[in-house]
């Protein structure tokens, strides 16, 4: 994990993120109105996370670490680097249940669905109906 630089993605580099998702995480697709943070080294982007923006809150989505880089703490390092983004406005995420502990380590707390803003309540219900085992969480550091 040496020499990884974490920072918001420059808009001109946006197509790189969708190429990364297409190659490794086909369900992910970045949108131009999202804030995207990356971790990269001299060989390229190693991890990324997107923040979908709403008026008074944001939703962390699409956190991804290259398979060859997993298990080295890169996801938590990316989350730590994103603290300035987390603090811009209330941040929620829908964590897969097997990643609940990871998000706890990144200072998210598990919340009840009724603690989510209404648009996110309906969104998490739709995702669960499609078979995803998700937990509502909120950044709390």
From TrEMBL:
Classification via Gene3D superfamilies: 3.40.630.30
Recorded GO MF terms: acyltransferase activity, transferring groups other than amino-acyl groups
Residue ranges of domain N-acetyltransferase in the record: 1-129
Source superkingdom: Bacteria
UniProt cross-references to InterPro entries, sorted A to Z: Acyl_CoA_acyltransferase (IPR016181), GNAT_dom (IPR000182)
The entry's keywords: Transferase
Name used for this protein in its record: N-acetyltransferase
Protein's organism: Photobacterium sanctipauli
């Amino acid at each position: 994990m040496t020499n990884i630089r974490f920072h918001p993605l420059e808009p001109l580099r946006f197509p790189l993120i969708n190429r990364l998702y297409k190659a490794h995480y086909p369900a992910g697709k970045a949108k131009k109105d999202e804030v995207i943070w990356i971790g990269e080294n001299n060989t390229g982007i190693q991890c990324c996370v997107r923040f979908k923006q709403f008026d008074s809150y944001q939703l962390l989505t699409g956190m991804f670490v290259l398979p060859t880089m997993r298990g080295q703490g890169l996801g938590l390092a990316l989350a730590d680097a994103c603290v300035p983004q987390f603090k811009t406005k209330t941040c929620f995420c829908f964590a897969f249940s097997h990643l609940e502990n990871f998000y706890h380590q990144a200072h998210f707390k598990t919340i009840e669905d009724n603690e989510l803003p209404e648009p996110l309540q309906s969104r998490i219900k739709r995702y669960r109906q499609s078979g995803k085992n998700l937990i509502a969480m909120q950044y709390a550091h």
